[in-house]
Amino acid sequence: MRTLRKDLRRNRHIYMMIAPVVMYFGLFYYLPIYGVQIAFKQYSIMEGIWNSPWIGFKHFSDFFGGYYFDRTLRNTLLISLYDIVFGFPAPIILALLLNEVGRKHFRNLVQTLTYMPHFISVVVVVGMMFDFLARGGIINQLTSSIGLGTVSYLQSPEWFRTLYVGSGIWQQIGWGSIIYIAAITGIDPTLYEAARVDGAGRWSQMLRITLPGIMPTIIILLILRLGNVMNVGYEKILLMYTPVVYETSDVISTYVYRKGILDGSFDYSSAVGLFNSVVNLVLLVCANSLSRRASGSSIW
Amino acid sequence: MNNKHVTSSKLRKLTVLMIAVLAFVAVLSGCSDKNEAANSSPGGSSGASSEATSSSSPVASEQPANGTEAEALPIVSEPLTLTYFTQLAANAAPVVKDYNEIAAYQELEKRTGIHIEWKHPVAGQEAQQLSLMMASGNPTDIIEYNWTDGYPGGAAKAIAEGNAIRLNELIDQYAPNFKKLLEEHPEYKKMITNDDGDIYAFPFLRGDPSLLTSAGLWIRQDWLDKLGLKMPVTVEDWHTVLKAFKEQDPNGNGKADELPFNFGQPNANKFWFDRTSAFIGAWGIGTGFYQENSQVKYGAIQPEFKSFLQTLQTWYKEGLIDPDYALTDSKAMDAKITGNLLGAGFASIGGGIGRLYQLMADIDPSYKVLGAPLPVLEEGDTLQLMQRDFPYTGLGASITAANKHPIETVKWMDYKYGEAGSLLMNFGIEGVSYNMVDGNPQYTEAVTKAPDNLSFAQALSKYALPAANGAFVQDKRYFDQFAGLPIQQESMKNWMQGGTEKMMPPVSVTADESARFASVMNDVNTYIAEMFDKFVMGSEPIENFDKYVKTLKSMGIDDAISIEQAALDRYNSRP
Questions:
Q1: pLDDT tens-digit map of B361-381
Q2: Do both A106 and A170 map to the same domain?
Q3: I need a labelling partner for B237 at 20 to 30 A (CA). Which of A173, B31, B325, B398 fits?
Q4: Do domains B53-211+391-474 and B215-387+498-572 have the same CATH topology?
Q5: pLDDT digits (tens, 9 = 90+) for B17-63
Q6: What is the number of domains present in chain A?
Q7: The domain B215-387+498-572 belongs to what CATH superfamily?
Q8: Between B418 and B484, residue with greater pLDDT
């Protein structure tokens, strides 16, 4: 107890610095857990969270038996999967490429240009997509001028995932690469010298030194990403989708949004949200233990 | 060395402190922002209302003419502030940020002594923000909302949830004007009472049949003239006309770039087809719930709906419908109109037909649109469904259970149903926005010829807001001046041909049924929105209509119909 007090006094500035973070997580992540119980209740605003009657797993069985369960689950998983397969490696590749660029100015230019889109609000990005991809938009003018005809991209269910994942890569590739560039900088330069002495070319330097050097970072980020499989960026989907493309674009979070916020069934949407979180947690734990066993790097 | 160490550790301390202070300031400023906003709005309005004082005092002195005991003004001796949740009307939004900037409400505050703090939800997010407000457990004193249509569970649930209270007794005691109105118009009373016999809101009412039709189809009259075509009457006529628009280059630029018909984004097209009954009415059904001799039916599962979809699909295939209709929001629609591309569409009378003229006045003086009669299947048919709202559309101002001053609130509401209050809400300030001519209020040039290119509706919004919301009775004399263009009058006449017996009155479902109803209709609406576009665009063959109906049945549409049926039965048996 005394040591704790002493520690508190000695490091008070550090504690002060961490206090807002702790408060943030406490207020916005731990406190709301109290409300999770309404997933098992017939929630009535007048009765309040505590006094609403219990109804067990009814909301869950309604959700699993609902007409849109299969489709929203499939869409969520597929969009997430595409995002991991194509979106996750993209910044790594960019970082590796940038690392090989000799000229500093060019490298800085590319870096700046690629991470600029990160600062554009998603509303604007979707607005740009609507303009560029419209029937009279620049993309269709280009394709029709070389005789490929026009496609109504935003009304075609088969294009939705490509557009979603593609625009995501465009927007986040530069920003995402920063952490890998930092990790590459942290690799001991003597390793490269030794490799050059041993006659390794740039390709094998990259494969045998750079990539293994940033592997722990990659794995940690991948594990974290897997813990978010069920959370796709629903704000962007809400902006992008129309009923014509529901078939491929309606995901669990947009469904929850329509049910919970627009229809006011808070209890039902909490149940769906809880289901989401549980799946995420399971995936995170699995990915972590797999990675610990396979490569030794893990979050805990 | 030692010295340097000291400075650097001092520096570090200082930095840490500064960051901590900064974080703290950031938190504080977050709070103070809110206070400022709360403080500034009454301040701003009091400044503005004193400006209006001088001009409007004569009206205030005429006041006690219809004096009853409750009319004693001001209503409160101590200043009282009430909070009021309502949408910022689209016409008002460009002109005012807050209803306290509207002269009528400033004057109302001066007369009654009650200050209103307006909470305007972001446009298009009313439902969401109401839900959030409910979830926060801190509702405003007054909530104005569409209780029969937009509120999951309807009025009964609103009362159960504390967003409304039973008003019958309060009205009897403290609302002489409103009480008188209900006695004169028992049909109003029937509409605003829920099935338990509770009056739950002070309604926005349209006081005259001519105010109830306000939207329909429009068509480019100048294109018709140019191509020597008659105003289309039947659905087949429409096909001919739209095809001519497509093929005969009515905009005269040598390219077949005309978009004959566009009905807007999915939410909008359901709204338009359903609200105006255009086209769909030709088949004698609506898209949603309608009645046939007190028998509730759902339009989107009727066999006639298939034929309606089939027609739209054919038109779409022939390029008669804008292929991008599903992506056309109001901004894109304006662009297509001003680009001289669009041949026909949906519009309301003022914000639509009137506005089209304004948009095009500078671009093309020969531009002429006209409201088209709602089509029928065979020439000589009478349309069984037309567009006519009920005097009460469900929009009303409730008093929440959280309101600590229900009596004062009722008196404040009631004032607006009285003669003086009604003039104020419909016409604004005498001498400023209207003058009495032979006993009839006439808008002044401040409204009719407003500077800054403001439309009539926008200019009027500075003084009064008779068209959008608020709890009072809309005056016919407003509309006669508002839709005064000959073209608007003619459009109205075209739109008013047809029957209304099949329309559903504003029924309400019980709190018990509402959960089931909402959950069914959520899935159903999602599914129909999606399938409607697929059928129209042809990505779903029309042969699958039966499968589509079967899916809707599996979602429980029959349950929803019987819930509506029960609601209609209860409505019909209301006294």
A1: 777 778 888 888 888 888 878
A2: yes
A3: B325
A4: yes
A5: 555 555 544 444 444 333 333 333 333 333 333 333 333 333 333 34
A6: 2
A7: Periplasmic binding protein-like II (3.40.190.10)
A8: B418
**Structure tokens belonging to residue B320:** 């008669």
Structure tokens at B283: 């088949």
One-letter identity of residue A166: G
Residue B513 has pLDDT above 70, yes or no: yes
| pLDDT value at residue B268 | 60
Residue B186: burial class (beta carbons within 10 Å; 0-12, 13-18, 19+)? exposed
Sign of CA pseudo-dihedral B290, B296, B300, B306: negative
In a domain, A181, yes or no: yes
Residue A177 tokens, joined: 């690469």
Residues 6+ positions from B281 with CB-CB distance below 8 Å: B374, B383, B384, B385, B386, B498
The whole-number pLDDT of residue B62 equals 38
How many beta-carbon contacts under 8 Å exist across A and B? 95
Q: Domains of chain B: which residue ranges?
A: 53-211+391-474, 215-387+498-572
CATH number at residue A95: 1.10.3720.10
What CATH number should be reported for the domain whose range is B53-211+391-474? Answer: 3.40.190.10
In a domain, A53, yes or no: no
Asked if residue A200 and residue A96 are part of one domain, the reply reads yes
| A159 close to A153: Cβ distance less than 8 angstroms | yes
Domain match, A289 and A214 both: yes
Sign (positive or negative) of CA dihedral A259, A263, A266, A268: negative
| Residue A142: domain span | 68-295
Asked if residue A8 and residue A129 are part of one domain, the reply reads no
Asked if A277 and A212 count as a contact pair (C-beta separation under 8 A), the reply is no
Identify the closest residue of chain B to A150 by CA–CA distance: B323
| Contact criterion met (CB < 8 Å) for B131 and A67 | no
- Residues A25 and A76 grouped into a single domain: no
A97: helix, strand or coil: helix
Torsion of CA B97, B102, B107, B112, to 10 degrees: -50
| pLDDT, tens only, A239-251 | 998 888 888 999 9
Q: Smallest CA–CA separation between B309 and chain A, in Å?
A: 15
- What DSSP letter does each residue of B57-78 carry, written as one string? HHHHHHGGGG--GGG-SSS-SS
Question: Inter-chain contact B532–A243, Cβ cutoff 8 Å?
Answer: yes
Chain A residues within an 8 Å CB radius of B533: 242-244
Instruction: For residues A218 and A69, give the distance between their C-alpha atoms in angstroms, rounded to a whole number.
Output: 33
- pTM value surpassing 0.90: no
Q: Within this chain, do residues A21 and A165 fall inside the same structural domain, yes or no?
A: no
- Does the residue A63 lie in any domain? no
B509 interface with A at CB cutoff 8 Å: no
Whether A8 and A87 share a structural domain: no
Q: What is the pLDDT of residues B526-568, one digit of tens each?
A: 899 889 989 999 989 999 999 999 999 999 999 999 999 999 9
